[in-house]
Amino acid sequence: MMNAILSSFGASERIARKARSRWLPEGRRGPMPWIIAIILFLTILSAAAALGLGHALSQMRGELAGGYTIQLVEADAAKRDAQVEALKGFLNEDANIEHFDVVPRAQLQKQLEPWIGGALAQDELPIPALIDVTVKQGTGQQQITTMTKAIRQAAPSARVDAHQSYLAPVEETMRVMMWLAVALVVLMIFVTGAVVTLAMRSAHETHRPTIDIMHLLGATDIQVARLFQRRMAFDALFGGAVALAAALPLLWLLGNRINAAQSELMGMMTLPLFYWGIIVMIPIAGVLYAVLVARLTVQRTLERSL
Amino acid sequence: MSGIIEFENIGLRYGADTDILSDISFSLLTGGFYFLTGASGAGKTSLLKLLYLAQRPSRGVLKLFGEDVVMMHRDRLPGFRRRIGVVFQDFRLVPHLSAYDNIALPLRLSGMDEFELAGPVEEMLGWVGLGARADALPAALSGGEQQRIAIARAVISRPDILVADEPTGNVDPEMAKRLLGLFEALNRLGTTIVIATHDLPLISMVPQAQLMRLDKGRLIDPTGSLRYPPGQAQSGHEEGRALGKPG
């Protein structure tokens, strides 16, 4: 009766689990949890860098896409103004233009003030006229080329520059850094796999006499593999928790520093909430991965025995 | 009675060394009681290893429970091993498990409920006279006590075949007699017993037992009764003739 009551509460299964856990000696944990902690910590940082850079790139692309500046480099102010007027007419009629703004001359002079000083009179220095243009979404390169030719016909001194081209070197550098971070994450995955494999092979060798006895008493490979898998799960859980506990405050601090810099470009690297979710999932994925590698390694090692 | 263990021209060698076992052919009947004797190095332990599936033979056909286990996929072997109880010569107790846990190991491996196994394990501990040492680790037990735990572990799951390598080598004559009584009781319940021993007085205590003798890796079976036991005489003889062996 008592047995039945206890069994119904899963007590028997708990006792059995405890008994099974003793099949391999517990002993000292060794450096494995700390090695996993270091690897996962570096993985989280690399992944955060990759996500931040990826986010910044996509933000940048979104903001720069379709943006062009028309520069009218004409020394003669009257001619320049005439070309501006001609272009305004053209841009108003072009179906591919979302909107355009003629940058006020005063604004241009203010921007140049640090270099040429404020003492210069307005017309003493020929300053190009600038028109910011945004083309409609979906406008193809062919249409852009046609439009550029038409602009040059309307205003021979016009130079059309895509906003994306200004930041192309920065974008390229960011892309390289992002892929470098991704490569580091991939490398960490390989390292984790290698470390777990080596640890499992070593543990298997250490416990070989016990495993042999268990095999001869009818233990299946799965039963033996579970013992190692369970041990690895505890090590990886510990390592994952330590890695997350160390990485989250660090990333939060870095985020604060980036925000404090008040740079629009750096601000783009600030991670949205969804990405923080991904970062938190990394140690969990790491634990599952380590457990899977441990199981497969032990099973493959056992397959070599009878 | 049918053949539960069948060896047909079994040979065993390690690497390029000479044969440990050569041309071993016999058939053991379900419920039989067999002693395996022979000088040291005759191949008794090697033959037993084949029996409890610690090793596959280099050649020949080995059938257990009617199935050829030589080419059998290893995933199926645990099921066979659970039907075979083994008393190892060196006991092979798990050093970090208590006497209780060592005895319970085969039952736990077969997935028996903890509450179900407690009774049989305690009963078996009492039977081998070690009820008070249930929590002792093997290192804290004497050689004889370890041997009794090893025997208890081998018989706890009421195996179809019990294989024992010198099972009474470390116990006093009184305990040896008691353990032999346990083997006989199991045998009466249908378990096939195969015991490798040098102990001639022990052999003489089981008059119904059949004797197998190994000499330099070959089985001495002058009457042919092991090769062609009564239950299989007809088919065995025909097969023997077909293979060109004496009938």
Task: Describe the secondary structure blueprint for this structure.
The complex is a heterodimer of chains A (306) and B (247).
Chain A: H1 2-8, H2 11-21, H3 32-64, E1 67-72, H4 77-93, E2 97-102, H5 105-116, E3 129-135, H6 141-154, E4 158-162, H7 163-166, H8 168-206, H9 208-216, H10 221-260, H11 264-267, H12 273-303
Antiparallel strand pairs in A: 1-3, 1-4, 2-3
Helix pairs in contact in A: 3-8, 3-10, 3-12, 8-12, 10-12
Chain B: E1 3-13, E2 19-29, E3 33-38, H1 44-51, E4 59-64, E5 67-68, H2 77-81, E6 84-87, H3 99-109, H4 114-127, H5 143-155, E7 161-165, H6 173-188, E8 192-196, H7 200-204, E9 210-215, E10 218-220, H8 233-242
Give structural notes.
The complex is a heterodimer of chains A (306) and B (247). Chain A is of the alpha+beta class and 306 residues long. Chain A is built from 12 helices and 4 strands; from the N terminus they run αααβαβαβαβαααααα. Chain A has 2 domains: 29-61 and 169-303, no CATH class; 74-156, Alpha-Beta Plaits (2-Layer Sandwich). A 4-stranded antiparallel sheet of chain A has the order 2-3-1-4. In chain A, α3 (32-64) packs antiparallel against α8 and α3 (32-64) packs across α12. Chain A starts with a helix and ends with a helix. The mean pLDDT of chain A is 84. Chain B is an alpha/beta fold. Chain B has a domain at 1-83 and 207-247: P-loop containing nucleotide triphosphate hydrolases (Rossmann fold), CATH 3.40.50.300. In chain B, the strands form 2 sheets. A 6-stranded mixed sheet of chain B has the order 6-7-8-3-9-10, sandwiched between helices. A 4-stranded antiparallel sheet of chain B has the order 2-1-4-5, with helices on one face. The relative contact order of chain B is 0.19. Chain A binds chain B through residues 3, 6-7, 12-13, 15-16, 19-20, 22-23, 25, 209-210, 212-221, 223, 303, 306, and chain B through 52-56, 74-75, 77-79, 81-82, 86, 92-97, 101, 104-106, 108-110, 113-115, 153.
Task: Record keyword descriptors for this entry.
heterodimer; A: alpha+beta; Alpha-Beta Plaits; 12 helices; elongated; B: alpha/beta; Rossmann fold; 6-stranded mixed sheet; disordered C terminus
